[in-house]
Design a protein that fits this description.
Layout (H helix, E strand, L loop, with lengths): L5 E7 L10 E10 L2 E9 L4 E12 L7 E8 L9 E12 L2 E10 L5 E8 L3 E8 L2
Antiparallel strand pairs: 1-2, 2-3, 3-4, 4-5, 5-6, 6-7, 8-9
């Protein structure tokens, strides 16, 4: 997770022959040391898509284990997938100014999952997942 109160990130594709949106813009705000919320915009030729961004650090990195962050963002961006994805990221400093990350994404199927972040009593972070069947 980035340091600072606000973070602005852009991603621009350097190739033209792809099914991915050419530009992605992300703005997130750090609410607590472990929680970031924001908005991600995929800017395309035909339309703009907006997705919520949430990152919650479950625990910090130590010498014994990497940091673990659960979050959500866009599922693509590409013509093949759409919507939001839940992410689980492990991150560890490998040396001075060098870090390594491993992320697993799960694309949320339309009308199949509901993913919520709740602050119980305004202080206890809670994640809720609902599965329809």
């Amino acid at each position: 997770m980035q340091q600072g109160g606000w973070n602005f990130t852009t991603r621009t594709l350097l190739v033209e022959d792809t099914n991915r949106e050419p530009l992605e813009i992300r703005l997130v705000h750090r609410l607590t040391p472990d929680l970031q919320v924001g908005l991600e915009v995929e800017v395309g030729v035909d339309s703009d898509e907006y997705y919520p961004v949430l990152n919650y650090r479950i625990f910090n990195a130590t010498e014994e284990h990497p940091a673990l962050v659960i979050g959500t963002s866009s599922a693509g961006p590409s013509d093949e997938v759409d919507g939001n994805a839940v992410t689980l990221t492990a991150a560890q400093m490998l040396g001075p100014r060098i870090s390594g990350t491993l992320t697993r994404d799960h694309i949320l199927a339309e009308n199949a999952f509901s993913f919520s972040f709740i602050l119980l009593g305004e202080e206890d972070p809670t994640i809720s997942v609902s599965v329809g069947f």
